[in-house]
Structures are given as structure tokens and as C-alpha cells.
Amino acid sequence: MLFFYDLYCPGCALLEDEAGDYLVELYRSGKASLYFVDYPVHRGVEKLHATFRCIYRRDPMVFLEVLKRHYEAYLSGKLKGEEAVAEADGDCVNEELQRVMEAKSVAKELGAPGTPTMIVGNLNRNIGQGIFGYPGIMKLAKIIEDFYIY
After folding, report:
1. For the residues 78-90, what does the mean pLDDT come to?
2. How confident is the model at residue 79 (pLDDT cuts 50, 70, 90)?
3. Is the distance from CB of 92 to CB of 27 less than 8 angstroms?
4. Among 23, 43, 76, 113, which is most buried by a count of CB atoms within 10 Å?
């Protein structure tokens, strides 16, 4: 599963809030791969995205936990981006900032209309589906189940 996301995206936050644990369980059990593509559509969030990429480089599972905490804070109105920035060193952030901008360009080239945009697919069965916006946990789970054979 591929997720085009923005750290200030309300739909992305709702997706994480409702479906995050489900998606992480699919990942942990080896039933699905999760790929996150930076698509910072809100101005000024690029450096925060770079910081999250640094966290991912160190440990993808820590990234998923920090992402969860970030979106929880976002939904509760208590978001302070500085918390995540403290998690990464400046050299890494500077390196990853260019990659964030490259990922944003790729998202635009692929025609991702905004965030969240998801691509759910099964390469073994040569099928997939793009989803714009968060359709809700029930519909998302149904789409995933249609693509994956457990």
C-alpha cells in the first residue's frame, strides 16, 4: 500500500486515527507492505517531513509510532512540530529535505490530487486501485481484503 501524505492533512490524521493500528498489524504480520510518499501540500511543513524521514531511516517502526503521536496531537489541537524536529539531527534533515521535494514532484507527476491519496494493490495478482481521500475504516478494510488473500 502506498500513501501520499502531508503531516498537516486532516484526512491523513483521521486515516491514522481510525486505521493506523489495522495497517500496522497488516505490516507486522507480513500481509502488506506500507510505503509513505511525502506530499507536503501545506506550506512550511517540508522540514518536518524531512525530520520524519530521518526517523524512518533510523527505524521504520519508530517512524510509525511517531507518526501516530503526531496525528493524535494534530487531531486534539495540541500539535507542536518542534517535538519531532528534536528527534533528528540537522545533517540528516538537510539531506532529506531534497528528497521530500523530489517526492512531492513525483506525487504531482503521478497525478495525486491531494492528501491522503492511497494506492492499494497486489503485484502478484497484477491489480490495484487508487483512492483519493479517506473513505472510512470499513470501506478501506474491504478494499484491502479484496486485493489481498490472507
Report:
1. 63
2. confident
3. no
4. 23
The residue length of the chain stands at 150
Distance, in Å, from the CA atom of 68 to the CA atom of 2, rounded to the nearest integer, reads: 17
Position 108 scores a pLDDT of 95
Distance CA 147, CA 78 (A): 36
- The CATH number of 2-147 is 3.40.30.10
Write b or e for each residue in 9-28: b if 16 or more Cβ atoms lie within 10 A of its Cβ, otherwise e.
bebbbbbbbebbeebbebbe
Q: Reduce the DSSP state of residue 131 to 3 states and report it.
A: strand
Domain boundaries, the chain: 2-147
DSSP H stretches of helix in 29-85: 46-58, 60-76, 82-85
Using alpha carbons, list the distances in angstroms from residue 142 to 39, 87, 138, 139, 146. 25, 36, 6, 5, 6
